[in-house]
Design goal:
Blueprint (H helix, E strand, L loop, with lengths): L6 E5 L5 E5 L35 E4 L6 E4 L1
Antiparallel strand pairs: 1-2, 3-4
Length: 71
Amino acid sequence: CKVEPGYICHLKVGNLSDCEKHCGNKVHDKDLEECDDSNNVDDDGCSSKCVLNPLYDCTDDEKTKISVCKF
């Protein structure tokens, strides 16, 4: 199977996997996401799958570490 964008999976005993949503969790994990603006709304700069929307620029807020996107 293939891990969908916005999720991370850990292999368990018997080739079963335990998957959890990491996108929109208010933590920008730069190894897994292009951005994380703490919501699951598309077309606001950071998509519901934590991928940058075209023509937007996103930076992480220094205090909250949440992505802030501007057009």
